[in-house]
Design a protein that fits this description.
Layout (H helix, E strand, L loop, with lengths): L1 H17 L12 H15 L7 E4 L8 H5 L6 H10 L2 H10 L16 E4 L1 H8 E3 L5 E3 L3 H8 L6 E4 L3 E2 L5 E11 L2 E12 L2 E12 L1
Parallel strand pairs: 1-2, 1-5
Antiparallel strand pairs: 3-4, 5-7, 6-7, 7-8, 8-9
Helix pairs in contact: 1-6
Length: 208
């Protein structure tokens, strides 16, 4: 059962990524988006023993309902804090930007090497094809993943960053999968103080 749940999560995550429309008009991320990505990634995954970070090379719009239904929800009070604290334009900017997926590049500033994983490579590792070329989750996908990317925290996905009008408040979603019943998704609300971005609130939306 454990194997079924996490391989199904992987499968539907790949559908969420591949079903997005990277060609829709959407400005490329600005440098401050990469500053925010770097701050959140370093906070979440910059732990002792981590020697590389593996990120999907396109932004993720969101998780499909079926995957959400297979996980446990938490931190609803924290999600309410984000809703109450975030400016209207921050939420609107986040929603607008995440209607389509765009490519990411290597502008991150991290203490360890970064790997941007392509959709083709992700599918090669995590999917197998059955009869009629129907895709399904590869139950040994993470064995291959960690063979290729040892001492990484798992496969990370990022949303676009939503900003308020003066770009001193930001909202971003970060998800990751790390193996059997291992992974979560979180929203981060950040504020810019003294020219430095700091995490103000964190809300977990799912956990596997």
């Amino acid at each position: 059962m454990k194997e079924f749940v996490w391989t199904t999560c992987l499968f539907f995550l790949s559908l969420a990524l591949s079903s997005q429309n990277p060609s829709a008009p959407n400005p490329e991320p600005r440098d401050d988006e990469y500053t925010i990505y770097s701050e959140v990634i370093q906070t979440e995954f910059g732990k002792e023993g981590v020697e590389r970070i593996v990120i999907g090379d396109h932004t993720l719009m969101g998780l499909p309902p079926v995957m959400m239904g297979m996980t446990q929800f938490g931190s609803s009070a924290n999600m309410q804090k984000i809703r109450d604290t975030a400016a209207k334009e921050t939420l609107q900017d986040y929603d607008q930007k995440n209607k389509s997926s765009i490519p990411l590049d290597s502008k991150f500033s991290l203490r360890v090497p970064l790997v941007l994983m392509s959709e083709a490579e992700r599918d090669r590792i995590f999917q197998v094809k059955g009869k009629g070329e129907k895709r399904s989750g590869n139950p040994k996908g993470f064995e291959e993943f960690y063979r290729l990317y040892p001492k990484s925290p798992g496969f990370v996905t990022l949303s676009r960053v939503g900003f308020d009008a003066v770009r001193t408040q930001a909202l971003v979603y970060v998800g990751y999968l790390c193996g059997g019943l291992c992974g979560d998704g979180k929203f981060f609300l950040l504020v810019k103080e003294g020219g430095v971005w700091k995490i103000q609130h964190v809300a977990m939306t799912w956990i596997s």
